[in-house]
Structures are given as C-alpha cells and as structure tokens.
Amino acid sequence: MNIHVPSTYEVYRGWQSIQGTGLEIGTTLLVGAVLVLACSMVLFLLPTFIACRRKVHNAAVVAVVNCTLGMTGVGWVIALLMACLLETDASRHARLRRSEPATFLTVP
C-alpha cells in the first residue's frame, strides 16, 4: 500500500489555488468599497441634485441644509422636501411679473 502524504509546499500551493492571490481579493474589496461610497454619496446629495435639476430659486440653501444637517436623517428629509416644494426660478419670475405676494412654499 502506497500512501502519499502531501508536503507543506503542496498543501500551500493547493490552498493558494483555492484562495486566490490576495491581490484579486483586495482589489475586489477596494472596488466594492468605492462603488458603495459613490452610491451613498449620490444618495446623500440627492436633494441637492433635485433642487438643481428643478432650478429651485434657493438651491444653495437646499445644498447647505443637505450638507450640514443631512447626516441626521431629519435634515436630509427637510432638504428633500425643500428641493421638491420650493418655488422654481420660472414660477418666481412669472409671479414677480404679475406682482403677486410670495408664499413660503409654492407647489408647482
């Protein structure tokens, strides 16, 4: 009966083929972390993007509220509401041409 007992080197080489080189695993983790960070930043700045896309009159105020208070969660919801409900530039100019009084929140 001939029994083969693998050497330490053979065990190590077999483990490497299963595990990967380490560089591949580290690169995958790094790319995954960067993607998660990028997606979370886009989600965090969503109220600012909405305010800029809608051309809200005070988009800078929405951005300041979002960046300073957004981490609390409540501040992020407030910034999102401001981005969705504040008056746009076009409706503000039309209102000023008609000389109507301003309201705090004008729903488009």
Task: Please describe what this structure looks like.
The protein is an all-alpha fold and about 110 residues long. The chain is about 70% helix and about 0% strand. It is built from 6 helices and no strands. It is rod-shaped. The termini are far apart.
Q: What's the structural blueprint in terms of helices and strands?
A:
Layout: H1 8-19, H2 23-44, H3 46-54, H4 59-69, H5 74-85, H6 89-98
Strand content: under 5%
Give me the number of helical elements: 6
For the largest beta-sheet, the strand count, sense and barrel status come to:
none
Query: What is the helix content?
Result: over 70%
**Unreliable spans:** none
- Reading the helices and strands in chain order gives HHHHHH
| End-to-end separation | 87 Å
Radius of gyration over all CA atoms, rounded: 28 Å
Coarse structural class: mainly alpha
- Quaternary assembly: single chain
Shape: rod-shaped
Mean pLDDT metric: 82
What is the β-strand count?
Answer: 0
InterPro entries: Phage_imm
Protein name: Superinfection immunity protein
Organism: Komagataeibacter xylinus
Transmembrane segments: 29-52, 59-83
Characteristics:
70% helix; single chain
Short description:
The chain has 108 residues and is an all-alpha fold. It has six helices and no strands. This is Superinfection immunity protein.
